[in-house]
Every structure is written in C-alpha cells, then in structure tokens.
Design goal:
The protein is mainly α. The chain contains nine helices and two strands, in the order αββαααααααα. Strands 1-2 form a two-stranded antiparallel sheet. β1 and β2 form a beta hairpin. α3 crosses α5, α3 runs parallel beside α6 and α6 packs across α9. The two termini are about 15 Å apart.
C-alpha cells in the first residue's frame, strides 16, 4: 500500500471479510487475531483482485517497510530530514543498514540507493508537472546539493532535461508501486 486510498480500500476489504483490524498503515496490517487458512486465502484473493498482494514472510515485510520509509521520506516529507538514509532505515526497521541493503539488493535486484533515486525522480516529475516551483526550489526541497546535480540525475534516468520535461508536460509518471 502506498497511499491513504490504498489503506482505505484494504480496510474496506478486511471489513467485508469480518477481519478485525488492530492497526493499519502503509504496507502493514495488524489483525486482532490470526486468520485461519480459509480466511487468509479469501483475503489473498480479494487483495489480488484489487492489485495488492498478501505478504506473509519476514524478508518481504522488511522490503516493504524499506520501500514505505523511502516513499514517505521522498513523497510526503519531501526529504525534510537531515538524518542520512542509512541511519533512518536502521532506526526505523531495527536492523543494521548493511543487512537491509544486502537483503534489498538480493530480493529487488537493485540497490536501495537506486530505488531512492527512482523515487526522487518521480517526485521531481510530479513537481514539474504541477509547475508551482522553480527547479531551484525543487532541488532544495528534495535535498539535492545543486540544480546541476538534480538536472544531471534527471537526464540520466529519463533521457530528458527537467526543463524539456516541463515543456512537453507529458505525464511520464509511474504509479509509486511500479517504480
């Protein structure tokens, strides 16, 4: 789950299945009691029909938590933290960063750093399309050291300069769960 609407949809499905929620957040649901095999299968089918998946193993849950921390940081808090990412992830997930980094690379086939860059570029695209901030303001908001660095990274990922992207205003954004 990557947004509040996702949480609402999942909550609705859980209610339909009479599964009582103790806590629900991005990428996580804690139920009041463990569902039986039949309930779990019905839940899995309901979620898959909506484009979600039921993640029930420890490694996958950790990966989802890593992604949710990064998405929250880039898309909701606009990188407003001055703590570096490795410290933030270690603190939030209660694991050594090297373990998290190796696990993420093993499961996802990419590094945490590349995932962060992909998320940041999607956020830059969004802000460019809104056309409310200058490139300097976007760079500052997303903790880029300079506009030149943002522009170089943007061009490397998209093949376009930010100003060219803004000019054509094509919606080149991907859904967050597809990045």
């Amino acid at each position: 789950m990557v947004c509040n609407r996702c949480i609402m949809v999942v909550q609705n499905e859980l209610d339909k299945l009479a599964l009582h929620v103790k806590n629900i957040g991005l990428g996580e649901v804690a139920l009041e009691k463990e569902p039986g095999a039949r309930e779990k299968e019905r839940l899995k089918e309901a979620l898959e029909s909506l484009g979600f998946e039921l993640i029930d193993d420890k490694k996958s849950r950790i990966i989802e938590k890593i992604k949710n921390v990064i998405i929250d940081l880039v898309h909701r808090r606009d990188n407003d933290t001055k703590t570096n990412l490795s410290t933030l992830l270690s603190r939030e997930l209660h694991h050594d960063y090297n373990y998290l980094s190796n696990l993420f690379s093993e499961v996802e086939g990419t590094t945490i750093e590349k995932y962060v860059i992909a998320q940041k570029i999607e956020r830059v695209k969004e802000l460019l399309v809104y056309d409310e901030l200058s490139l300097s303001e976007i760079a500052l908001r997303l903790n880029y050291s300079s506009v030149a660095y943002l522009s170089n990274q943007f061009k490397k990922v998209t093949g376009l300069t930010p100003s060219h992207f803004r000019q054509i205003k094509e919606d080149k954004r991907k859904p967050l769960d597809k990045v």
